[in-house]
């Protein structure tokens, strides 16, 4: 394989890296009063280019590059596309939200782009150390972005908490890699399975896998590793929350899928019950926690914990249908959650004027567009038919039920019922007549960037809910390409 | 995919849908001419496309399938966006788009002075979208989308004058009654999935064909559920009661939805599913009996109605009964043939009635019409064609198709002769009530002017200007008369394409449909002489009806009065439509209301559900409070929780907890 050809397998990441560096270089050269928004549009274009590069990878045969540390296949492309789309919309929302008070906006764009590079690397890496590097790139940019409103105490607090707890979790992840290396002598995900054999599993590998589950569990904010989420989301700028509640999670879920299904299918008796518990806890704690929240962003933070739980349900199915359902769910959750944060960001502005549910009273009267979009995304989050949220849940629970996960499905359905309550509370608030005159001012005019963001997220949610066929097929291809690695017979599989 | 090239069938429904979107979103601000243009173009394009398809039809390999992706996939079950085209579909497409376009055209004139003009055309285009989806669908689920969609459009259009209570209620009634039928349709779909694992027509029918031993049993169950669905949509006993009330909608709506297209969906569905019905004699007999009974029953009610549109409504129910009768004796192509000719002459009857109503500025009561022959000659002549056609006078369209049905009923095994006799008697009644309408409306003296001179007649309809200035009776504009003329021609010659072989014709229509509707039931071969005899009897019966109507309503107009007095009980029975509405009210609606008010709301809702949900809500809220309290905001405690969770998880891993315990 020629070097050029190998480059194609990391082309999306390369494009974004170059774009990010350019933005960093240009930012200080611009005068104080110069608008940074063109930089944002430049970032948008670079994400488009990277999206195109990802799609181009579909045309190549699935394969590895750079000594087998990178693997592009339908699975990696699926998540590349997902991450690129999330970052794209987040950039648009940032462009829309930023105002004169925003400092060094260019850096924010660059950080988003760099974060995307890390997340994309995570989804195509087949070397645990490269996964770790990707994870760190994405995490560190997210830590900084969370604290981007430097003069805001909550923002700083959010960043610090996220950073400290995140480092704690990363340590688990790293230690897990070390233990796995100790047990199997390799950190290549594709090679671990064959090294493990099937008979006597070294305890180190099992514990190492547990450590990795902890690290990734933290990243996807699955209970009981979710405690950081509400505080971090509350303080971080809203466009950033839209990003960090979806893209890094999608990447972490992709890594989790790859690790458990490619490296440790043999240990499924160990990890499946753990994921079962994490799913059940996440759904329950997320939804119960959201019930009494008055702060919209905290509520959505708990909601994201719950949705991580729904997604984990699909993991327990142990089938390609389950993997496909998880990938599909990641996409539909991203569409509606990034969408709702676009609405929240625009409605409350960079200074976050609206924070409580009661502040949203009359939103639909102040701006029918925002009110309608908010209602639409909430309906999708509840999981009402003809939205992506419905089909996402449907496929997740269908795959779980198919594998006999009756109780987990019941827990999930009860939780979906509870969830409707707090989503509807926000919806009812947005559609009530405002009592307070201050809440009657018309909203700032929606910019082109916001409209574009809403068009992408709304049409995405609708497509996933009405004509999911195409994307379902994509997610299914992704699942098949992932598990075809499992099919490779391990040398020692016929032991005894 | 059998065809080499795509016909872009998706365009057919989507063009009217685009028209709907444009008019619904922007129509309010458009001038009327633009609204009209959008709506007409959005129906003309599909019509032209269908003509194009028809012109190259012989070169297609049928059925022609076009798939536009998967809609739902769950395990092995999947429903796709697939459209299918075969002979039956083409016939339906021609009727829906052709008659649909003519009625759109007519509406531009008829609705010209109405408020909500854009709304009307938006709904009308929406209807076309769903109707075309229904006809093109290749599986029951997609068909159901169209099925429900036309119901929605029908609801919206019946209640078009939503400020009028009667219209709003009529819309609701249509919707609710159709729900009962939809329940049957849904059950049938579930049974299809359970037994065949699919909803695709081709797949289900090939599975049935592949198992010749399948007979009756669950096939009958499915067929009967479908029949229930069909009786709702096609206004048959026992679910016909909504259609007369649906006349509250604007007259073009009655012509398009409640005569020519939507109400025939049930017939179409039965014909489409004929492979299944062929295997279930019981279901077929049910269809035949329902059809015959409805035809007869509705015709008797039509005898005494005084509202011109209600006569036509009962006549529609009666004619749909004939189509059911045809399907019930496995003469599907005859049923579809009657569907087509009926679309011509019944649309024409409604549109002409609309023209009469238009001329009288909103008057619908035939008792105050009369003598309009000279004042609105075009309307009179076109309507005459339709009346002759529906009455079954040769060689008009209605004669050919109705006679074919009666012939098939006569030659059908079992109680065929009885069905034939009732059908024949109904034909007599049909002829009588149609000529009654004809005489009352167009002949005699003009009772409208007399009545207006005497006393102020309360306006029975929507035309607001009735009270203001009683217009001079006027002929309708050309945009309304054009469609009338075209439909009149079709009502005359439309039957010739199916002229029976026994009467020297070629029955081209029947042969055309044969591949799509090939039935396993081979009717007893009747002789030509039998067919000639039956046709002769039908003709005589139709003439008898005409003669009697002539006697009653032209020669001796005092006769009906006398007769109604001497047969008071019977007359009242008919006038009150056998008190079926009242019966349903007492037997179905009152108990349901009682159950809802006292048992469901009082006991279950307030007691069990509210109580239960409050209890559940408080418990959940309480637990929510605990979760919230754990969230102290203190980073050390967070780290503590994290460590605790990690420790727990690692312990579970270490002890191989999963290996011993199944969590399923």
Keywords:
heterodimer, A: 21 helices, 2 strands, disordered C terminus, B: 664 residues, two-stranded antiparallel sheet, 28 helices, 3% strand, transmembrane helix (chain B), membrane (chain B), Proton_antipo_N (chain B), NADH dehydrogenase (ubiquinone) activity (chain B)
Oligomer: heterodimer
Total discrete domains of chain A: 1
Q: Mean pLDDT score of chain A, rounded?
A: 88
Helix content of chain B: over 70%
Helix count, DSSP H or I runs of 4 or more residues of chain B:
28
Poorly predicted runs of chain A: 486-496
User: Largest interface: which pair?
Assistant: A-B, 56 and 42 residues
What integer is the average pLDDT of chain B?
Answer: 83
| Tally of domains of chain B | 3
Radius of gyration of chain B: 29 Å
Question: Strand share of the residues of chain A?
Answer: under 5%
Topology:
The complex is a heterodimer of chains A (about 500) and B (about 675).
Chain A: H1 3-9, H2 11-29, H3 37-59, E1 63-65, E2 70-72, H4 74-97, H5 105-124, H6 128-146, H7 153-184, H8 189-196, H9 203-219, H10 229-235, H11 238-244, H12 247-263, H13 268-291, H14 296-315, H15 320-348, H16 363-366, H17 368-382, H18 388-402, H19 406-430, H20 448-466, H21 469-487
Antiparallel strand pairs in A: 1-2
Chain B: H1 11-26, H2 32-55, E1 64-74, E2 77-85, H3 87-110, H4 117-136, H5 140-158, H6 165-196, H7 201-210, H8 218-233, H9 242-245, H10 251-260, H11 265-272, H12 274-278, H13 281-302, H14 308-328, H15 332-359, H16 377-391, H17 397-411, H18 416-442, H19 447-454, H20 465-468, H21 478-493, H22 508-517, H23 528-555, H24 559-566, H25 568-575, H26 580-630, H27 635-654, H28 657-660
Antiparallel strand pairs in B: 1-2
